[in-house]
Design a protein that fits this description.
The protein has twelve helices and no strands. Helix 4 packs across helix 7 and helix 9 runs parallel beside helix 11. The chain has 267 residues and is an all-alpha fold.
Length: 267
């Protein structure tokens, strides 16, 4: 039992190192297969990232107007993750924004330069995220902080699901993180979903009275966005790549934030 828990802790740290710039203890070690196994802790790492950003948002709201506090919180998140998912978003839309062949799209994703489609995707997604968070802070800071942590956790279930349902679309032998080119097992998806269940329970407990409607809307929006992405990637690429997994996190995150705000605004 103790050995199993220690192994899960190691996997969590591996996921934390993969997604962020946070240094991990030297005793953790590394085995290539752990990179694939650690997928079940992606939502847990998302919760950590969300907690840091939410803390910055709460502190920033004490010093500045909502729009500035949101900008600072988003900047903290980008510094923490190194813009990891945002880079995937830009590469995905550079490749799939125009109508090119599957082979050409995969080639474009490997290009480190950003094109017009990628730049537009970043501007629109980041701009909408900032506007949505600003509106949430204006409505209720407590709800905005809880929503930010929850969404960061929940949105990282999208790449786990896609790696379970889709094959790798590129050349697995030359993938930057080859173990992640392997499909995640059903048990891995269930374990990752456990993080979301915990996050939902914590959110329901912490949200102010009447605030649970936004959570339900966000859950539905995240599921629909992930399924739509699954269908799109299967049609265009025949599977996923590392860049498309980053894009899935960004797009599902935005869908959930918009749904949460829509539910509160409609109420």
């Amino acid at each position: 039992m103790a050995a199993a828990l220690l192994h899960e802790l190691r996997l969590f740290f591996i996921a934390l190192q993969f997604f962020t710039r946070v240094p991990i203890p030297s005793w953790v070690g590394f085995e290539p297969v752990w990179l694939q196994q650690c997928a079940r802790h992606f939502p847990g790492v998302g919760a950590v990232i969300g907690a840091v950003g939410a803390g910055a948002l709460a502190l920033g709201a004490l010093c500045w107007p909502p729009a500035v506090a949101v900008g600072v919180a988003m900047a903290v998140g980008v510094v923490l993750t190194g813009g990891f998912h945002e880079d995937g978003l830009a590469d995905t839309f550079d490749a799939l924004g125009g109508w090119v062949s599957r082979e050409r799209a995969l080639t474009i994703m490997k290009d480190s330069r950003i094109g017009s489609y990628g730049a537009l995707a970043l501007v629109l997604v980041l701009g909408l995220r900032a506007a949505t968070l600003t509106a949430l802070v204006t409505l209720d800071l407590r709800t905005a902080v809880i929503a930010w942590v929850w969404v960061q956790c929940a949105s990282r279930l999208a790449p786990v699901w896609l790696t379970h349902r889709l094959p790798y679309a590129g050349d697995a032998e030359h993938a930057k993180a080859k173990p992640l080119a392997m499909q995640v097992s059903g048990s891995g998806v269930v374990a990752a979903s456990g993080w979301l269940v915990l996050a939902c329970g914590a959110a329901v407990w912490a949200l102010p009275a009447g605030g649970q409607g936004g959570l339900g809307a966000a859950l539905l929006a995240g599921a629909l966005a992930t399924l739509a992405l699954q269908r799109w990637l299967r049609a265009r690429l025949g599977g996923f790549t590392g860049d498309t997994l980053g894009a899935s996190q960004q797009l599902s995150e935005l869908a959930m934030l918009l749904a949460w705000l829509g539910a509160l605004h409609g109420a």
